[in-house]
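hey can u check if this looks right to u? its 172 residues, i copy pasted from the old doc so theres a chance i mangled smth
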Amino acid sequence: MLAVRDQRDRAAFGRLFAFYAPRIKGMLMRSGMSGAEAEDVVQDVMLSVWRKAAQFDPARAQVSGWIYRIARNRQIDLVRRAPRTLPEEVEIETPPEEDPGQQLAFAEEAAKLRAALDQLSPDQREVIARAYLGDLTHGEIRAETGLPLGTIKSRIRLGLERLRHELKDLRP
């Protein structure tokens, strides 16, 4: 480094470059920089070493510390200059306001459905409630009630036909 500083010795600089370039590149890549970016920074750092060789003082720092400090500062400069991505704004969806007319229509439909269910026989109502409100399979209903599977299916079919008839005017 003293030969580079005092005599602008190109051969000495070549030896410095050959020794420090791969080490600086490794340091930069370990910190997350890609290989191509690291090579560009190494070129820039070593050019700064050549240009600023007159500023090197062996009494203040070792050659390695001086060169690595230049590399670290260059890396910090690059990070500061890099465009920062802003976090995306999260849009919070507000639930749509319930239309009072729609609420009234649902309430009326629910009342008609309850009235239609009340017109079913207790046996049909019980099996339909277990199948559709309790989410039970026909086999599970059979296990709970002890009724034959054919009886369960018949009660559900007849009950649904009656409900369809009672509620045919509810929706087109």
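The first helix runs from residue 2 to 7.
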